[in-house]
Amino acid sequence: MSLFKKIFSSQKKETLDKGLEKTKTTFFSKLSKAVAGKSKVDDDVLDNLEEVLVSSDVGVNTTLKIIDRIEARVAKDKYMGTDELNSILREEIAALLSETHLGEEREFGIPIDKKPYVIMVVGVNGVGKTTTIGKLAYQFKKQGLKVVLGAADTFRAAAIDQLQVWADRVDVPIVKQKMGSDPASVAFDTLSSAVTQDADVVIIDTAGRLHNKVNLMNELTKVKRVMQKVVDDTPHEVLLVLDGSTGQNAFEQAKQFTKATEVTALAVTKLDGTAKGGVVIGISDQFQIPVKYIGVGEGIEDLQVFNKYEFVDSFFNIEN
């Protein structure tokens, strides 16, 4: 149990607890019904638990992994009371997340050997992509890093305007062209400007449409290729933003984008307004891509670096 005895930032933890409140309340309400009248974890309890996890948007494949792990522990221990189920679930979900999240990032930061560090952000419209970029820019700037934004989602004028609003709010430079411009051209100009300004971080917004996967794939490949003319091995990170409140739809989006481009990290937004927080566990496990950031509120500080222990601790409402 000692791995949960970490010292969390109290303010961050309070925000996380509050953000996951709906998920926790719904999950434990279902869990209580699943074990009602039972003192021992048996096949019926496991069947009910499977239903609870699937209906909490953990996903079928991940749910089956969790059930298998618990079955193995029941077989090993010969007897397991339902009163132990919370702590067992907590431990097994943390262990599952550990397979994807090998290390833990505690703060917003970038590798010191990459300058500028280039992040290409992908995701469908409406998931909180532009807001996530703005909040990331704010956090990086707060760390003393010089940030440049690139408005390469030229498909919608609103996307360019929204990113401009965030650039003004955070007070960081933005490179943009008019709507309909070549996204790769915007990316090229952004990196060229960042190199000239000796910037530390570049965040490139990209178009968020999935109606034609081939076009999306071609466009993202072209953006990458053109960026590499300015800075080798870019982008250093491809961040897929998913709306946690859409549950299973987020799985489908992850599936489509991981086919279209090499996604290296995930940001799951809008967890504060939903009971579907279990989607974080399922997506991380199913796609074997680490969740790097989570959005747990509307405030500029409410984008957090994901930490599996903090998340599981909040999810299960552990008493410290």
TrEMBL record:
It is an enzyme of class 3 (hydrolase). InterPro entries: AAA+_ATPase, P-loop_NTPase, Signal_recog_particl_SRP54_hlx, SR_rcpt_FtsY, SRP/SRP_N, SRP54_GTPase_dom, SRP54_N_sf. It is found in: Cell membrane; Cytoplasm. Keywords: Cell membrane, Cytoplasm, GTP-binding, Hydrolase, Membrane, Nucleotide-binding, Receptor. Pfam families: SRP54 (PF00448), SRP54_N (PF02881). It catalyses: GTP + H2O = GDP + phosphate + H(+). GTP binds at residues 123-130, 205-209, 269-272. The keyword Hydrolase applies. It is a peripheral membrane protein. Its EC number is 3.6.5.4. Part of the signal recognition particle protein translocation system, which is composed of SRP and FtsY. NCBIfam families: ftsY. Belongs to the GTP-binding SRP family. FtsY subfamily. This is Signal recognition particle receptor FtsY. The gene is ftsY.
